[in-house]
Write a structure and sequence with these properties.
heterotetramer; A mainly alpha (about 325); B mainly alpha (about 375); C alpha/beta (about 300); D alpha/beta (about 525); C: six-stranded parallel sheet; 10 helices; 12 strands; D: about 525 residues; Rossmann fold; six-stranded mixed sheet; binds adenosine-5'-triphosphate; binds magnesium ion; translocase (chain D); ATP hydrolysis activity (chain D); cell membrane (chain D); nucleotide-binding (chain D)
Chain lengths: ~325, ~375, ~300, ~525
């Protein structure tokens, strides 16, 4: 396998990892605050739909992004209401949100655009295009580094860069700020936070807001960032669940989340290139085996290398002071 | 811990929640320009208005009972089984194999063998995640999600390359021989004069599902195994103290769970389609999660929740059949029902409780209440 | 009134359900008639919908999709006075018309065009869900390519193994990019809604896409080489027009009767050279004449031109 | 009112949890610069009252005055603002945070963490020097002992600059030495003018350190008296409503054959640390062996090995026959089948399923027992319920309702359920860990009586406790553990708290006056107190 091929695979890895990463970090904030969220899928879907719809209608991809975030925030608000204010079951709420988004996006899209639950295809300007980083063209011919810079690092959409920047930002917020300390604490022992004079409810809602924003971006990435060009029903195709798996895989830590998502992205990118797998292992991988490969590899890696993942201790339980 | 009578808790609260769900569904319907009242009438008529309608409602409910019980049993051991979907697919494979390749003298024997085969295959598919959880601490949520995907790939492989009769387009097995056909409600309940459940897919599996509810209830609350299972679910450290082996409980709970999910196949594969098609489970595994959670993991609750979802499914289908309402609208209604009855139930319960407390509290503050010591 | 039942993909699948819907609408617009329709959401509803329409007196009843084969076989005898039309499968009953399409032949033709349009001698195929029907497309396409340019490489990928594969444009795009990095410069999408992702990416990356089922040339003018049209709409339109007394029995829609073919219009006029035009028309004629036998994957689950 | 202004005044506080009236019209005044004790049976409402003062719960009725000023305390933030600090009975610490992080949590001085942590580190050092409260600021909470965690809780309050400090059963988990040190600190704080409220079940502590003491019973405040004018028996009577025996009545032991023989027992934990490093001892029938030691020196591991859920090497004989230590042919079940019963140290995490009803808990661990089985599959629930009812009656569990969930019983009654279950098996060997931790004196008396009664029926008992008083008064023989080894054995009549204390610190040469003169002095002092009371 030559460098260029490798870079192309890695390039795909980065793109495929991006929505996962955003959703995974969204889940990280939520779950670190003690709110389990299997509704990532639904929020992404909501974000994807509204971002594409508004981008299509206004022609502005930025307005679309904003709308996508709003959609995910609204779904987040439902989750917050159910799991924080009314101390409901967080899993049920998440399931409901997934169904809700799955149905409502199509119902609205159909009555809005009449294209069978799709938004119109987005033209240039109403979707995020790849950015050529400064000097990419110039450095292209520098051996090794040039192609790496040009093929792998340059050329992604702004959302990809944002997603990757959010990783250190998340780390910094979580471990270097007062807010992060409190957030981590509220997911471990809300009573400690409460008796320390900090509002458990406020913290948890703030986490849910962050989760909404990030899933909204993730949805926008799926629907409006190149190579995508519009919304189509169920287009998240299980990515929310994979993000959740990545989150557990990452043991709820930001850098690990990056690596977990890149790993998932890489496995998916490999699935796209059966020719490479054949070149490396010398065998043609049967088609269905190939599509199961990312999942099989995940299980193997999980069982073989990743030990027990301990979730935030107060996760999933509403904070109830009086029985 | 409150003055609210039990009937209010189990009937009034869910009822008000359902009304809220209906109210918001109506708003969505109005928003897309449909008449909610007509829609409701269609749904009710279409799902409980005739034996035919019941035949469909109960058919769907049967699927949901199996997957709901599967999730519920695992829940009791604090294992979140998201893999009922894949396990049910594999159960379908098991049922299909015995139905296709074993000659049965009578449907009843076929049914018993198919239950065993479905349960066995479903359990086998749950066994690997269970083993990895028990021995390697691999999170069961991830592994069961992954196994859903793997099950899909496996079934596509088998149906496309191995089991599909040559020359047909559909990735499906051949139809099962007549001896493996289960009696439908139509056959069971029709008499000379009156035809009941005509053409409806409900079949004898429904009674197997009801039996499974009773069985699971007895298992969880009456047997030693259930006792150990719940104990482990509540507290792993205490279970260890009592000499309950975590490995054994995780394995057993997941095997039972997977087995129940696999048993769903006797309804949809053997009872209805009478062949194994691709994606035969159609999301019932995921609905099972909602059903189990809404039923509070109690078999009776699961039964009721499964009926409710059967009603929504069939009512929704009728809606799509007779009105120009997009079929996704049903998903929205389902979501609202799950949301209000499952996640936001405290929103309804708290005010009702307050009303009862106000009405129920006599004006004598000097009531001697023994504090629990 | 006639009735139509769409398969699980839904009537707006950008694929053959949608095509069927278009045919029905065309008929309604032309005649001012009305028709009943339903989108299924579960396998169990096939029988339900069939019986419902039959009992309500709808005639003929058209159903789109091979999955109706088994239920229709069971139900057709119960309603001898109703005529059924099944698309994509063969049901041998006196009151059933079975319409099947020679997708392999149509795909062969676009394969010829793809091979000639390719400068890299590498062409791609992106299928939706990995089912025999899609393999039939792929197999015909590969035969066309290889017959035209024996040195060519066909890179074929399926999007997935779940029905989600029909609605995953993101993955379709990635597959297209992956094929481009394997030098493909023409990609044929037979992937329902996901195909939009293929054509979009092909356009973005300035290579050619090939549409499927209906004429998709308009989606990215100048970037869609052609479309393999499968006239499901015509089949539905004809059935509706002929009404209650339509002829039953097997009806094969091939190149000859324009049931399948490649699409030409203003959007791709500049892309197809004289030479290409000649070649593809010759191939069509040869197929009609029986001089070229395009192998049908579903006849024996194998393909001479490509492995799955 | 001409009275001096009280630091804290609660007026007419009432609080109900559902049907449970935890506090009924409670009024209390605490003078500044004093230590005020609160005692009461389990579930009397002490913690609830203090939690209301700290803003954790909201009172249904009543008013709070701080330094004479009426103060609304809707949440803990308001309480902290009013200068109140509280150390909860169940610590409110984030287990996987460091000490420092726990201390700054909620009291950070800027949005950035590092400056806050740096300042906290400095201040922590100052506080540590000032009050001898040294802790490792970078230690993770779950890895330090409960004594240390206690310190962290106190430091948390001090760091926030509280004038009023509430301590809810702070000594329940402390070793005698740690408790003594705590009291020295409290006295210093008092001398600085801070007001302290101390909740405890240990009357000796009340007598030693408080100025005034309030007694609660069943949600009501029954009396507030000046400590100097009362006595332990009087307090006990006020508390329980009847006379309480403060001393264990015990006949001399009638020793039988060796029931348990332990030889060369070694345990290595998951981290590879050797927890037991060659333990040898015997227990005879009719004998109570008390195992003293600071928590975390291997006692828990020993109980777990004997209880069947930790693997070990070495040899253990029960009634002369070996029991399996490898875990391959044994578990908690087989131990029970062999006649070993076990009251675990942590009733909530091990001894009970908190979400099971009382009757279900009655069968816990004995769910294989024949009398609870209808057949191979089913349990005989009615029989278990009846059994539970009988046990509740016999052990005076309150309320005697088998249908109540375990978590709805107070700690003392939870403990009674466990003890009833285990003792009523009439085992050959009873393992008891911390039998009276957090239990009120009425219940302590009862549990002690039951343990002694079992001994008198000729059974062997291994008693593990961090309460020296308990060990001294119950045991027929005392072994002291330190760092996974037994440092020595003594007869209760022939030793004293000082000597045991030194052994607990790993000092075997107890004949010499030890250099830590200070420690020695305290221990002597404690001995005096203990002799007077228990
Ligand atoms: N959060 C709560 N929800 C419901 N009931 C509670 C709660 N906390 C305490 N109770 C009940 O209120 C009563 C008083 O409890 P509290 O904890 O104040 O007692 P206590 O005197 O501190 O007992 P202990 O000595 O065991 O600590 C008990 O009956 C208890 O079960
Ligand atoms: N009456 C009893 N009292 C205490 N322990 C018992 C009793 N009967 C059996 N045991 C122990 O319980 C364990 C399992 O016993 P048994 O074979 O009866 O149950 P099982 O059916 O294998 O267990 P499970 O119900 O957990 O599947 C064995 O270690 C046995 O020694
Ligand atoms: Mg057994
Ligand atoms: Mg208390």
């Amino acid at each position: 396998m030559d460098l260029l091929t490798l870079l192309q695979v890695l390039d795909a890895t980065v793109r495929l990892a991006t929505p996962l990463l955003l959703a995974c970090l969204a889940g990280l904030f939520s779950e670190r605050a003690g709110i389990f969220d299997i509704g990532l899928e639904g929020k992404m879907l909501g974000g994807a739909f509204l971002s594409a719809a508004i981008a299509a209608v206004t022609g502005s991809v930025w307005l679309g992004l904003g709308a996508g975030i709003v959609a995910a925030l609204l779904l987040s608000a439902i989750h917050g209401l159910a799991s924080i204010t009314f101390r409901g079951n967080q899993l049920i709420s998440g399931v409901a949100i997934n169904f809700f988004a799955q149905g409502l996006t199509v119902v609205i899209a159909q009555s809005w655009f009449g294209q069978g639950g799709r938004t119109p295809q987005l033209g240039d300007g109403s979707r995020f295009a790849g950015l050529t980083l400064p000097g990419a063209e110039a450095l292209r011919d520098v051996p090794i580094l040039g192609p790496i810079y040009y093929e792998l690092i340059s050329g992604h959409t702004i959302l990809v860069y944002i997603a990757f920047l959010i990783v250190p930002l998340t780390w910094w917020v979580l471990y270097r700020t007062r807010y992060g300390l409190r957030l981590r604490a509220v997911g471990e022992n809300p009573a400690a936070v409460d008796t320390a004079g900090v509002s458990v409810r406020g913290l948890r809602y703030s986490a849910i807001v962050i989760c909404g924003v990030l899933t909204g971006i993730a949805g926008a990435q799926l629907a409006t960032a190149e190579p995508a060009a519009g919304f189509i029903k169920d287009m998240t195709a299980g990515r929310g669940y994979i993000a959740l798996a990545a989150l557990i895989f990452a043991k709820w830590r930001p850098w690990y989340a990056l690596f977990a998502c890149l790993l998932f992205g890489f496995l998916q990118a490999l699935e796209l290139r059966p020719d490479l797998i054949q070149a490396v292992i010398g065998l043609r991988v049967q088609g269905q085996l190939l599509s199961a490969l990312p999942y099989i590899m995940t299980v193997v890696i999980l069982a073989g290398f990743v030990g027990k993942a301990i979730p935030p201790r107060a996760g999933g339980e509403p904070y109830v002071k009086e029985r | 811990m409150n003055r609210m009578p039990t009937w209010a808790d189990v009937i009034l609260v869910p009822l008000v929640s359902l009304l809220l769900a209906a109210f918001f569904s109506a708003i969505v319907l109005l928003a897309i320009g449909e008449n909610p009242w007509e829609a409701l009438k269609l749904m009710v008529e279409g799902s409980v208005g005739s034996t035919y309608a019941w035949g469909y409602t109960l058919y769907y409910a049967t699927n949901f009972i199996f997957t709901g019980l599967a999730v519920a049993v695992a829940n009791h051991a604090k294992l979140f089984n998201i893999g009922a979907e894949g396990q049910a697919q594999l159960g379908g494979l098991g049922v299909a194999l015995v139905c296709l390749f074993l000659p049965f003298p009578h449907w009843s024997i076929a049914l018993i063998v198919a239950i065993c085969a479905g349960a066995l295959f479903g359990a086998a598919w749950a066994a690997i995640p269970a083993f990895l959880q028990a021995k390697r601490g691999s999170h069961i949520v991830i592994t069961t999600i992954m196994f859903n995907f793997i099950a899909n790939a496996l079934l596509v492989y088998l149906l496309v390359n191995v089991l599909k009769p040559s020359g047909t387009m559909e990735p499906a097995t051949a139809s099962f021989p007549d001896a493996a056909h289960l009696p439908s409600f139509n056959a069971m309940f029709s008499s000379e004069e009156t035809v009941r459940f005509r053409g409806a897919p409900a079949n004898v599996s429904f009674f197997v599902a009801v039996a499974a509810c009773i069985g699971v209830w007895a298992l969880i609350w009456r047997t030693r195994l259930g006792y150990q299972l719940r104990a482990f679910g509540h507290s792993e450290s205490a279970a260890r103290y009592a000499g309950i082996s975590p490995t054994k409980i995780i394995m057993v709970a997941m095997l039972i769970s997977g087995g129940l999910a696999g048993c769903m196949a006797i309804n949809n594969v053997m009872g209805e389609a009478e062949r194994l098609v691709l994606n035969s489970v159609e999301g019932a595994g995921f609905i099972g999660i909602a059903v189990a959670l809404m039923g509070r993991s109690h078999p009776f609750g699961v039964f009721l929740a499964a009926l409710l979802f059967g009603f929504l499914y069939q009512g929704g289908a009728e809606l799509a059949l007779w009105a120009s309402i997009p079929r996704e609208m049903i998903v929205v209604i389902q979501a609202l029902v799950i949301l209000f009855t499952g996640a936001l139930d405290n929103m309804v319960r708290a005010p009702i409780e307050r009303i009862f407390n106000r009405v129920g509290r006599p004006p004598k503050p000097e009531r001697k209440l023994e504090p629990a010591e | 009134d006639p009735a139509i039942i769409y398969d699980l993909g839904g009537k707006f699948d950008k694929s053959f359900n949608e095509s069927a819907f278009n045919g029905a609408t065309m008929w309604a617009d032309e005649t001012g008639g009305s028709f009943a329709e339903v989108e299924l959401q579960s396998d169990a509803q096939r029988e339900q919908a069939l019986r419902r329409f039959a009992e309500a007196g709808n005639n003929p009843i058209v159903m789109a999709g091979f999955s109706f084969e088994t239920p229709l076989n069971e139900i057709a005898p119960d309603y001898p006075d109703t005529t059924f039309v099944i698309i994509d499968a063969v049901v041998d009953q006196p009151n059933v018309r079975s319409v099947i399409f020679n997708e392999h032949e149509g795909s062969y033709l676009v394969g010829v065009l793809a091979a000639m349009a390719s400068e890299t001698d590498t062409v791609g195929f992106v299928g939706g869900m990995d089912i025999p029907l899609i393999r039939k497309f792929a197999c015909g396409y590969a035969q066309g390519v290889m017959a035209t340019n024996p040195d060519a490489t066909v890179v074929a990928n399926m999007i997935g193994t779940t029905p989600e594969a029909w609605n995953d444009p993101a993955k379709a795009s990635e597959l297209t990019l992956a094929q481009i990095s394997q030098d493909a410069d023409v990609v044929y999408a037979a992937a329902g809604g996901s195909g939009l992702g293929v054509l979009q990416t092909a356009a973005d990356e300035d290579i050619y896409g090939i549409g499927v089922d209906s004429n998709q040339n308009y989606l990215h003018p100048g970037q869609v080489l052609t479309s393999m049209v499968k006239q499901v709409d015509t089949a539905v339109y004809n059935a509706f027009s002929q009404g209650e007394d339509l002829e039953t029995g097997l009806m094969v829609m091939g190149i000859e009767n324009e049931g399948v073919g490649y699409a030409m219009d203003d959007n791709n006029a500049d892309l197809i050279s004289e030479e290409m035009m000649t070649a593809v028309d010759e191939a069509a004629a040869a197929i009609n004449a029986g001089d070229i036998m395009v192998h049908d994957y579903t006849s024996d689950e194998s393909c001479p031109a490509i492995d799955f | 009112m001409a009275d001096p202004v009280a630091a804290i005044e609660l007026k007419g506080i009432s609080k109900a949890f559902g049907p449970v009236q935890a506090n009924k019209d409670i009024s209390i005044r605490v003078m500044p610069g004093t230590i005020h004790g609160i005692i009461g049976e389990n579930g009397a409402g002490k913690s609830t009252l203090m939690s209301i003062l700290y803003g954790f719960y909201k009172a249904d009725e009543g008013e709070i005055f701080i330094n004479g000023k009426r103060t609304e305390i809707p949440d803990s933030q308001a309480a902290i603002g009013a200068g109140i600090g509280m150390v909860f009975q169940h610590f409110k610490l984030v287990e996987n945070f460091t000490v420092l992080e726990n201390i700054v949590l909620g009291a950070e001085d800027s949005a950035m963490l590092r400056p806050s942590l740096a300042r906290a580190r400095r201040e922590l050092k100052a506080l540590a020097d000032e009050y001898e409260l040294s802790v490792d600021p970078d230690a993770v909470i779950q890895e330090i002992g409960v004594g240390m965690q206690q310190r962290v809780e106190i430091l948390k309050a001090l760091y926030r600059g509280c004038d009023i400090l509430i301590l809810d059963e702070p000594t329940g988990v402390l070793t005698p030495a740690e408790a003594d040190q705590l009291f020295r600190i409290l006295n210093r704080l008092k001398d600085e003018g801070k007001t302290i409220i101390l909740i405890t079940h240990k009357l000796r502590e009340i007598m030693d350190i408080t100025e005034r003491v309030s007694v609660m019973r069943r949600g009501e405040m029954v009396a507030t008296v000046s400590t100097a004018e009362t006595s332990p028996p009087e307090l006990a009577e006020l508390m329980v409503g009847r006379k309480v025996l403060l001393r264990v009545e015990k006949k001399p032991a009638k020793l039988g054959d060796k029931t348990l023989e332990v030889r060369g027992l070694r345990v290595v934990d998951d981290q590879g640390v050797e927890r037991l490093r060659g333990i040898d001892f015997d227990i005879r029938a009719g004998e109570i062996l008390g195992l003293a030691g600071v928590a975390g020196n291997g006692q828990s591991e020993l109980l777990e090995v004997l209880g069947g859920y930790r693997i070990a090497t070495g040899e253990v004989l029960l009634n002369g026959k070996p029991i399996d230590l490898t875990g391959s042919r044994s578990d908690g079940q087989s131990r029970r089948a062999r006649g070993i019963a076990h009251v675990p140290e942590d009733r909530q995490a091990e001894g009970l399923i908190m979400d099971y009803t009382a009757w279900e808990n009655t069968a816990f661990g004995y769910h294989h027992d024949h009398k609870y089985q209808a057949n191979a599959l089913f349990m005989k629930n009615a029989a278990i319920r009846a059994d539970c009812e009988a046990k509740m009656k016999k052990f005076d569990v309150r309320p005697p309702d088998p249908m109540l969930l375990a978590k709805n019983f107070s700690g003392g009654n939870q403990q009674k359920i466990v003890v009833a279950r285990e003792i009523e098996r009439d085992p050959d060997l009873l393992l008891v860990g911390q039998p009276t931790r957090g239990v009120d004196i009425g219940a302590i008396e009862f549990i002690h009586q039951q343990i002694v009664a079992l001994r008198d029926r000729g059974k062997a008992i291994l008693l593990v406790s961090v309460e020296l008083d308990e060990i001294m008064s119950l045991s027929d023989r005392i072994a002291v553990m330190f760092d996974g080894k037994i440092m020595g054995e003594r007869k209760p009549g022939e030793t004293d708290a000082r000597e045991l204390g030194l052994l607990m610190a790993g000092i075997t040469d107890t004949t010499l006056p030890h250099s830590a003169a200070e420690v020695e002095a305290q221990l002597a002092e404690r001995h005096g107190a203990a002799g007077k009371e228990v």
